[in-house]
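User: I'm designing a mutation panel for E3 ubiquitin-protein like and want to avoid disrupting the core. Could you give me a predicted structure to guide residue selection? Please restate the sequence first so the numbering is unambiguous.

Assistant: Good idea. Sequence first, for numbering, then the predicted structure tokens:
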Amino acid sequence: MCQKRAIFKPMTGEERQDLKQRCGGSWKLVLRFLLAGEACSRREKAQAIAGPGHSIAVTSKGVVYSFGSNSSGQLGHGTTEEQWRPRPISSLQGIRIIQAAAGAGRTMLISDAGQVYAFGKDSFGETDYGAQGIKQVTTPRLVESLKNIFVVQAAVGNFFTAVLSREGRVYTFSWGSESRLGHQTDANDLKPHLLLGALENIPVVQIAAGYCYLLALACQPGGMSVYSVGCGLGGKLGHSTRTDEKYPRLIEQFQTLNLQPVVIAAGAWHAAVVGKDGRVCTWGWGRYGCLGHGNEDCESVPKVVEALSEVKAVHVATGDYTTFVVSEDGDVYSFGCGESSSLGHSTGGLDGQVNRHTNVLSPEIVTSLKQVKERVVQISLTNSIYWNAHTFALTESGNLFAFGAGDKGQLGVELDANQTERGKPERVDIELN
């Protein structure tokens, strides 16, 4: 069964044996590791990324489209002009992309050969570009510092970038001052460094980056677990304290809750997990109700969202004080900050006008997506404190729907005159399957 998995096929015999030992010494554990990674990060499947002001869409065949803000060349078309409609990145012809990540003014793409391409502001490890922010790259460029690492996922935070290798090792760069991520480097060090500490010998299947912290979903013989590292303000590291962690630390609360994590999401200031049994846990800053507990309190350890007790969740996405949950039957729930209409709710105000910007303290079904009459399989929302948020909903049939802020063309749909956002989902003219 392992040989049918895409990232396992090209491995040499020695690499396969190394992975087997890393996973605990059995092929059954290797298969579980491979399947877990595919399930939680949509590798080899269509996906859409709602970045800060710009958007990336990857088809099931690995073709990449980009649109929206392009002030730093983050769309990869060789210019800095905005794009209001999805446009394929022509320079990637012949390269199959399996995963994408977007940050403020920057984009990273990962090919099926494990190579990383980056463009936009900053240099992502390109030593000839020097300090961060000085140069712009307007077409996809191979990240030379990662060429000896077979990468399967990337995550872009505000101060750092993290990548995950096919063996389940985590590397970070552009964030090393005060040894906050387990390696003592200077803040402008653009070379990737292995994340030291507890995860050195534990395979990781998914990484998620918040504003200033990182989550890692680890696969161990005893089951799945979550580790966190970075800034602990608001309790978003999940350890019942608000202190920083220089090295990855196990979040123990999931054992207390008897919950087996299968998907992780790191918002700017809060985090979420879906359990194997379909329960959803959230923690961190609770502003605007983004934790879904009916209030705006902070939670310093993962807490089950009781309002979703009758829902079996399969996917969760987090942004800047916003959270979306997708159920097993394709229903979508959202809660948190209603700014930019990015939650997809429309509620009648006292004056009879539609108010799309109301904050939502507890999960509410997104009825506008239910009206689409297609099963939603992925949600992506803007995870940045500096940009108005927009949201994508990808359906099982490969249709992409967008709503929220669209002032830079990031929705991929035309807006009416003087309109800067769209309150209800509109189909983007692009086929992803």
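For picking mutation sites, this is relevant: The chain has one domain: 2-428. DSSP finds four helices and 30 strands in the chain.
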